[in-house]
Amino acid sequence: MCKVTKYNICVSKHCCFKMLIFIFLHILNFTIYSKNISNISDNKTFNTPDILLNSLYDLVQKKQIFTDQKTFADAVPKYKPSYILKIWKAKRKKRNFNLKSFIKKYFIIPEVNSIEYITPNKQNLRQHIESLWPILTKSTQVLGKYDSIISLPKPYVVPGGRFREIYYWDSYFTMLGLSEGGHWDNIHNMIDNFAFLIKKYGYIPNGNRSYYLSRSQPPFFSLMINLLANHEGDKIYIKYLPYLQQEYDYWMKDSEKLKKEHAIKRVIKLKDGTILNRYWDSRNVPRTESWLEDINTAKNLNRKSKNILYRELRTGAASGWDFSSRWLKDRNNLKTINITELAPIDLNSLMFYLETTLTKAYRLSANLVLAKKFEQLAQKRKLAINTYLWDSNNKWYADYNWKNKKNNLQITAATLFPLYLQIASNEQAISTAKSVEINLLKSGGLVTTTINSGQQWDAPNGWAPMQWIAIVGLENYNQNKLASLISLRFLKNVQNVYDKKHKIVEKYIVDGNLGIGNGGEYPLQDGFGWTNGVVLKLLSKYCHKGKICNDFYDISNSDIMRKT
Q: Which residues does 505 contact at the CB level (< 8 Å), separation at least 6?
């Protein structure tokens, strides 16, 4: 076996030679493939259903032929779209023409919520989640010619319900649960699919649909690599290094040509030359999957204002928080969304982690020059976060508005990202923890914001991924009591819903009348990928060593239980 010292120095010439060959082959393979990459991340042309079907798409969505706008976005044309358009234009003015019948004749309509994610035979919580993995595992190797879904080489786990495709940041939390069950083959497959998407497009899109190609989502790929490396060793960093680098290039594209106090695509340059990132979508039309919702939101605006609003709404979807008062100038009016003016806490914290991961990967690859470069970039990022995203008045982390040079005054669950990724000082972490306990800790877990706007990423809702980020972040700074309060209150909330409804859902009410979540532009979805993942992690985390806890009731540590 080829061994290295703790400083990654080979103990023999034979060992060094083998390692160099391993690194060379991975980089060569990626370089050859990359020459043929068609990076469409910022192009203006996408083969999305709204473009291919044009006025027909617009009409079907405005007529609300389907109750969920995503249904027609996912429908598969049986013939070439231009042919369908031609037939439609010839028939639409006839007296007996029926649009709904026409659509059903010329399209394959996806089944909506065809599977009820309800437990059979009184399964416990862990058994229920384990039984869901096969149901939520999909494959898209063979597709219809005009399908909006993007084919992936390996099977993957979807969230559930209307979400029939892979989603970028959801998948990390799903992987946490898969790791608890030892499903490393699923994790391998999903990471390889993301690497495939990076090869093909130069980045990981929001999801594997053509209409998601105009944006990415919070960049959790480096955390996925770390999860797998913790199981299989440092070779994983070397194997996926080219993909980590290309994702970084996507997020930082055009930063070198950016003027101070300006932004372009996903990068912002402040007055002192500091570079931060923002979320961005390269299209400025209604979201394909939420067409009518966006048109209604933009009512009574002129064309220019509509296009600005459409991009903001799309960018809100890129953030994963679609939608939240966090992004709104008027906290109760979606029309005032201004996310492109913000340097978000979560995104910049994740970019710091990507830079530190690249530092490690290049060091393992014996490229000390690039390792040093990314180490310096990570330190600059850390300083920027603690300078611009730290609200020194309120003593918590908050998004920074680069246009008006102020922090958003609102505290949100995203304030914990710098703790989660170990960017905060001890003093900042303790202060943030106190603010979180006062403002966001509720009887059913951690609430997303303090404002009840009707948007799903606001009060009274709590989301599984934000519970996990809070728990790990707080424990990183020895705030274990608050971490356990959040953990067990949320887990108890999930258990109570499961006992009553026999299912797991995407979000929960954590403040007031606890139960299944509400708000937003679509009905609550069952399944549910990232909730499953976090719940399994929490069941194991608070279980006695050597014991398997199948539900909340099996967690019998009385000291912890009294705190819930």
A: 497, 516, 517, 524, 525, 526, 527, 528, 531
